[in-house]
Amino acid sequence: GDFPIETDTIVIGAGPGGYVAAIRAAQLGQKVTIVEKGTVGGVCLNVGCIPSKALISAGHRFHEAGSSEEMGITAENVKVDFSKVQAWKGSVVNKLTGGVSGLLKGNKVEIVSGEAYFVDANTLRVMSETSAQTYTFKNAIIATGSTPIELPAFKYSKRIINSTGALALDEVPSSMVVIGGGYIGTELSGAYANFGTKITILEGADEILAGFEKQMSALVKRNLKKRGAEIVTKALAKGVEETENGVVVTYEVKGEEKKVEADYVLVTVGRRPNTDELGLEQVGIKKTDRGLVETDKQCRTSVSNIYAIGDIVEGPPLAHKASYEGKIAAEAIAGHASEIDYLAIPAVVFSEPELASVGYTEQQAKEEGIEAIGAKFPFAANGRALSLNSADGFMKLVTRKEDGLVIGAQIAGPGASDMIAELGLAIEAGMTAEDIAMTIHAHPTLGEITMEAAEVALGSPIHII
Ligand code: FAD
């Protein structure tokens, strides 16, 4: 056989979990190898966060151009050349993935192309189309990510697509059925609705965007409906028939069977961890019932020199959570005392308006027996929001009653995705509502909403009664 190549730390998967772990491990003086079977950047950069946000912002611009009459702007004949949108989206992705490759090389991380599986707890085999190579390692970090779930009655095809397919369409569909109103389904629905696609969302639960408060998801629903979308909740998608140039989806709602025709059906019903073909069993790495890898607070698996991070472990399957764990795992390998703490991991939906949440909701605090105050401030009372002609929304600051400690925040409104960072910092730093209220926020900015919500928590807001 081949001669094994020795390395200190080997990382499997170069998504936001793996590449960040590799860079941090290299910074900490380890000899690092990263194995990637697809493209550097993983789901997030190639077929997830970044291309979806690119399509969302393009859709937003297109829609705004034709709907700013209130501000005295009428645009006629606004057109979209979707192949150019796609080319631009591709260029954004390429800049970022190229950047990540550069960062890895700059940190002297060896990038290996191929599919990895464990032979034993210190040996990995990497197969590519043209070669096979064995690596021995002291420590490994598994960051193999996740894959869209396929529903048995909706086998993927040209017209039955997952998020990857929806991001790669070469023209704006005239209609699309979206099964699953989670954040991925809702974001893509919003993007295409802005481009003019007639969207029908079929959601099994009684609300879309489960996990966000109803008052927040209600704003998103209203906006989707304004753009012609139909949202059917408590709907059970049953089957699909492919026609010559489209699909007919059958679903059941309130015991009644219905049909809807569309160009495409997009299935976004969740993702499953890529933990099946790695030889984990062989090494004795324990998994949960859901196929997630079991880890401790330092991302260590049941095999002590092997770590796991990102979508394949417990916790919200989000890019920034994967990266955060990547740093913890690399630091743990270097002997640091770093540990994960999920409280301040933000969750964002790039819908219209944007939704963002960090820490506890009022309800969650209650369930944990924490006496909390939810202090609300509306975007409509903020000068910047009004001058943006985008004043739909609110912030809710959640503080502990006994001492005003900031323990959570929820935001629905323009800029929520950026505004949530300040609240994450407040939680991490153990700040109180008073600390935020006493911080001078520039005028006129959306940031003042945060200051005012803190004033509400203290009982003395200036700009609402
Ligand atoms: P991944 O990014 O999935 O990367 C894993 C990598 O491992 C892949 O490149 C894969 O090819 C490689 N790999 C797998 N098995 C092997 C093997 N055996 N050998 C070698 N390589 C292997 N998250 C956010 O935080 N914000 C967003 O806005 C957001 N938007 C999203 C939109 C969409 C449409 C989707 C699908 C996801 C979105 N996500 C978002 C989720 C985010 O993409 C994931 O949480 C994130 O990519 C997980 O990172 P990861 O490093 O765990 O794995």
Explain the overall architecture.
With 465 residues, the protein is α/β, with parallel strands linked by helices. Helix content is 32%, strand content 26%. It has 14 helices and 22 strands. It has helices at 18-27, 42-47, 49-65, 82-106, 163-167, 183-195, 214-226, 280-283, 319-333, 362-367, 383-387, 416-428, 433-437, 447-458; strands at 5-12, 32-36, 110-113, 115-120, 123-127, 132-142, 146-148, 160-161, 175-179, 198-202, 230-232, 235-243, 246-253, 256-262, 264-267, 271-273, 306-308, 347-349, 355-359, 372-378, 394-400, 406-412. Helix 1 packs parallel to helix 9 (319-333), helix 3 (49-65) runs antiparallel to helix 4 (82-106) and helix 3 runs parallel beside helix 6. The protein is globular and about 70 Å long. Its main location: cytoplasm. NAD(+) binds at residues 180-187, 203, 270. Belongs to the class-I pyridine nucleotide-disulfide oxidoreductase family.
